[in-house]
Every structure is written in structure tokens, then in C-alpha cells.
Write a structure and sequence with these properties.
The protein is an alpha+beta fold. Helices cover about 35% and strands about 35% of the residues. The chain contains five helices and six strands, in the order H-H-H-E-E-H-E-E-E-E-H. Strands 2-1-6-5-4-3 form a six-stranded mixed sheet. A hairpin with a 2-residue loop joins strand 3 and strand 4. The longest helix has 23 residues.
Length: about 170
């Protein structure tokens, strides 16, 4: 957006609601961001206790999901169903996984909201050791639906935990 106004018609709605565009706009953005932060926190409270289906329910049908790292841990997926399968697999790999949101930052408006989330992860592994990790998540929401999700986690720790789980798994008969 240039000093003379929006560069394109696409910029016009966002310009109209910028904090410096008039009295009350700052209050609107502050309220929207507070509400969105509260919704993200509530969602992560549920996901963090294993109710991962709420994340899937929030995903747009054409969600783009990226989890950094080498395969099979790292993935780049499109679509709600592929995302659901991947998340289900994580909770099956790490039964009892607990995820705690430690911080969230929100910016933007309902048609293009960005949320950045910091997470702490813990699980008891099959050999009795404890898996601990942290992750950062970059989300793009559109009208309350997750359209883009990029997660960066210490994949070395996750790969090591996966190896423990696979080694300790009972042999199929």
C-alpha cells in the first residue's frame, strides 16, 4: 500500500481497517485479535489432550500442510483428509502425547489472519523414557478455517522418539 492509498482493489478492505485509519479501528483489531487468540488457545487445549479431530474440523478442504523434516516425519500435504491421516498417525505413534500452547501471536483480519503458535510437547515412550520437544506453528486462517499450516519442530528428537516406538512395538503375529 502506498502513501496515496491502496495499490490495488485487493488492498482496499485491509486499508480501511488499519489501526491508523480512524478512531475505533484500533479497538476493532484489538478485539478481533483477542478473540482469535482465545479461540486458538481453546483449540490447543483440546488438541493437547488428544482430541486432534478438532484441528481436522477447523481445516479447510484444500488445506496446505507442511511439517518440516525428512520423510516419513516431514511431509507436504494438501487437503483435509491427508492432514487428518497424518495427525492421526502422530497420535498413534505417541499415545498419550500432550501438547501445551505456550504463546500465540495473531495479526490480520478475518479474511487473512496469521497466527504464530509456540508449543511444548511431551509423551511417555514405550521404553519408559520421556519425549520432550517444542514446535513453532505458522497458521493462515480465512474466515475461521485453517488454509495453511507450517510446523517446525526439532525433528531429530522426533525421529529418535519414533525409533524407540518402532523398536519397542510388539511383533505382529
Amino acid at each position: 500500500m502506498g502513501p496515496a492509498g491502496p495499490r490495488s482493489a485487493r488492498d482496499a478492505p485491509e486499508q480501511a481497517l488499519r489501526d491508523d485509519r480512524g478512531p475505533g479501528a484500533s479497538r476493532l483489531s484489538g478485539m478481533y485479535h483477542a478473540i482469535t487468540r482465545a479461540r486458538v488457545r481453546a483449540l490447543w487445549r483440546r488438541i493437547g489432550t488428544g482430541e486432534y479431530q478438532v484441528a481436522v474440523a477447523t481445516a479447510a478442504p484444500d488445506l496446505e500442510f507442511h511439517f518440516a523434516g525428512p520423510p516419513p516425519i516431514g511431509v507436504h500435504l494438501r487437503g483435509r483428509d491427508a492432514f487428518a491421516d497424518w495427525v492421526r498417525g502422530v497420535f498413534e505413534l505417541l499415545p498419550g502425547l500432550r501438547i501445551t500452547l505456550t504463546d500465540v501471536v495473531v495479526t490480520g483480519w478475518p479474511w487473512r489472519t496469521t497466527a504464530v503458535v509456540k508449543l511444548r510437547l511431551t509423551a511417555r515412550l514405550a521404553d519408559g523414557s520421556v519425549y520432550e520437544n517444542q514446535a513453532m506453528q505458522w497458521l493462515r486462517l480465512r474466515w475461521g478455517r485453517m488454509v495453511y499450516d507450517d510446523v517446525i519442530e526439532d525433528t531429530h528428537a522426533l525421529v529418535a522418539a519414533r525409533e524407540v516406538q518402532i523398536r519397542q512395538a510388539p511383533a505382529a503375529t
